[in-house]
Amino acid sequence: MSTDESQRRYVIVGGGLAASRAVEGVRSIDERGPIVLVTEEDEIPYERPPLSKGVLKGDDEPDSVYPHDRGWYDEQHVQLHVGDPATSLDAAARTVTLRSGEQVAFDRLLLATGSSARALEVPGAELDGVLYLREKGESSALRERLTDGARVVVVGAGWIGLEVAAAASEAGCSVTVVEPQAAPLVRVVGEQVGGWFADLHRRHGVTLRLDTGVERITGDTKAEGVVLEGGETLPADVVVVGVGITPNTGLAEGAGITVDDGIRTDEHLHTSADGVLAAGDVASWRSTALDTHVRVEHWANAHDGGYAAGRSMAGSDEAYDPIPFFYSDQYDAGLEYAGYVPADVDPEVVLRGEPSTDEFMAFWVVPAEGADGRVRVLAGMHVNVWDTMDAVQALVRDRTPVDRERLADPDADLSELAGVPAPDAS
Ligand SMILES: Cc1cc2nc3c(=O)[nH]c(=O)nc-3n(C[C@H](O)[C@H](O)[C@H](O)COP(=O)(O)OP(=O)(O)OC[C@H]3O[C@@H](n4cnc5c(N)ncnc54)[C@H](O)[C@@H]3O)c2cc1C
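^ 3-phenylpropionate/trans-cinnamate dioxygenase ferredoxin reductase subunit, sequence as received from the core. Prediction below:
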C-alpha cells in the first residue's frame, strides 16, 4: 500500500484485545492510513479469558486466543513490531521510542497497554512452582502442573483465582483457596453472593481458607508449602497467585499524561495529550451514562472500547458510553454481571430466585431519588438465567425506579420492568 503525506499515521501500543480491535476500528473509517502495532510479548495480539477456562482445561487449542492471525494484519496493512515494546513517549513531538531504539512517529496514538498481575510480596514468592496467570505462556505452564492429585493452593478468591480453582478441581487436583476476606469476591458482590461462590466451590471439593492471609511460601528451590497467618502450613505442589492487577500506566505517566486509577480519558477516549488515546484495562474513561470516570478489567470493554478508540483515532466523534459488562464460567455456572458500583457506595443486595438452585439473579440497588420506597439498580448479575443482561443494562442506564418486590420476584418480567423488548425466544 502506498501512503501519502496527507494520511494520518496511527500507532497502537499493546498486545491484547483492545489493540487488535482498534485496528478494526480505524479500518472501519480509514482504509489507507498506515498503522503500526507494537507489542511487548513475543505474540501478536490475543485475548485472555480462555487462559483460565477452555485453554487451561485443555478444551480449546492455545491458538484459539488470537482474534486474528498474522495474515489478517498483513491484509489490513498493519506493520507489526512484535516483542519490541514502547519504552517512552514524547507526546509533544508525537513519537514513540521502542526498546530496539527505533522511533515511530504518529498523528494518533492508542495506549492499550492493559494491566499486569500484582505480585505476592511474601518470602518464598520467587520459588519455582509459584505461578501467575496473565499471559499465554503462563496458562500452558499452569496446565502442565494441574495433574490428577496435585496439591494446588490458590492465593486470592477473585475471578481468576476462582476460575483456576474450578479448572484445577475438574482436573482432579486437591485445591485450597486462601482469601483474607470473609467470602470470595466480597468487594465486588458482597458477603451474601460471595457466600454462594464459596458454597459452589465447596460442593466441588475445593477447600476455602477465608479470613486469613499468606505469610510465606516454603521450599528450597521449589514451593512445597504455604504458611498461613497463625502458622499453619498447607502442603503445595503448585501455588497460583491471583491477587489482582495493576494498570500499565508507565508510558503515559512518563509523558506527563493525566493518570489516576488508570489513564484518564474523555468520553471519546482521548487522554490529556493531544492525539493520544487510551482504551481497555488501562483506561479510565468518562462515562456519560454513569456520570463518573470508570476503569474496569473486562473483556467487553477491551472489545468495544478498543474498537471505539480506533474509530475515534480515525476521526469519528461518537462517544464511547457502555454499561460495563463482565462474564465468568465456573463448573456448570455461567454468569454475567452488568453495571457499576462506585467504591464509595454501599448498596443493598436484592436477590431474585434462590442461590442454592444455582439459578438466580442479584441486584445491587440504592434508594431511587424522589420515588418513595422504590430502588435504582446500579448493577445486576445472573447465574444461569440467560438473556437478562439487556434488561439489566437498561435499568442501570435509564436509572429506572423499580419496585423492590417485583425486582425480587422471578415471575415478574424483567424486560417489562426495564421497558425493553423481551429477548427473542427462538
Ligand atoms: C486469565 C484471565 C481470564 C480472564 N477472564 C475474563 C472473563 O471471563 N471475563 C471478562 O470479562 N474478562 C476477563 N479477563 C479480563 C480481560 O481479559 C481483560 O480485561 C482484557 O484482557 C483487557 O484487554 P486489554 O487489551 O486492555 O489489555 P491486555 O489484555 O492486558 O493486553 C495489554 C497488552 O499490552 C502489552 N503491553 C504493555 N505495555 C506495553 C508496551 N509498553 N509496549 C507494547 N506493548 C505493551 C502487554 O504485554 C499486553 O500484551 C480475564 C483476564 C485474564 C488474565
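The CA atoms of residues 94 and 106 lie 6 Å apart.
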